[in-house]
Amino acid sequence: MIKKIHNLRLNPVWQKEINDIIRGAAGGFLFGIPLLYTFEVWQAGSYLQPPLMLCILAVTYCVVLFFNRIEGFRRKKRKTFSDAFFESIEALAIAVVCATLIMILLQRITLQTSLEEALGKIIFESVPFAIGVALSRLILSEDEPNNSSDDQDKNQHSTFKKSSKKARVNDTLSDLSGTMTGAMIIAFSIAPTDEVTELGVASSPPWLIAIIFASLLISYMIVFVAGFSRQKERRQHQGLFQAPESETIFSYLISLLASVLMLLFFQKLSFADPWFLWMRYTILLGLPASIGGAAGRLAV
């Protein structure tokens, strides 16, 4: 299904626009996901007053505008202040949408949540997302566009086909170590907190399934769609787990393993706990861990 979506042919202008938005969203997830698992931020957002909401949005917009004058999430060079001005509005909108979706997914916003409380949580959580969107091209290096990309793709494809079995194994091991490292770094910062256990109490099977799909989709988007480092090369890798879909699933399983190890390390799980508790906590921690794992694969 993911492959069919990725292979859809759109108008080049729309395709470029979608790629830019995905790149910005990916940067937002990489930068903002740890704060989504912070009880204090949830609480602060619950009691945020409208005047303060506007002040936070204004300050966040100014920070994003500053970063967009330097880089931004689009490939095009901004020649005027108006370009950065409108791109900053887009960055803030992307951040708000991403933060809203994740807060709904984690059931921090439900139908019973008041509008004022929901807005407060969204605005607080969108701050790191917006900064991540603006810095998306700086967080991880980006593939440079090349006019002779078709010829290079063919040459790379033939090179990979001729590569030895040992090289393919090395690529797989490199992805495994990168995923495990990135996942453990993120999971290490979240596992000792009480947020995972609190989220686990409110979780239900349909929402857990939705979190699994979101984890797979976001990590696939970061590695294979956003246009970060070595994206074209990675899509041509050969090997057992080197196809985009199989690599995404395999890496997600590694991220779940890292989550379990961190939960055991910090004694949030024990072998006396029921299996459904293991499943809930692991899937919930697996969301940020899979994003960290995606960043780890890009870094190696």
From TrEMBL:
Ranges annotated as spanning the membrane: 21-39, 51-70, 91-110, 122-140, 172-191, 207-228, 249-266, 278-299
UniProt keyword Transmembrane present: yes
The keyword Disulfide bond is annotated on this UniProt entry: no
InterPro entries according to UniProt: CHP02587_IM (IPR013416), DUF2391 (IPR024464)
Keywords: Membrane, Transmembrane, Transmembrane helix
Cleaved signal peptide residues: none
Disordered: annotated segments: 145-166
Name of the protein: Integral membrane protein
Upper classification of the organism: Bacteria, Bacillati, Cyanobacteriota, Cyanophyceae, Oscillatoriophycideae
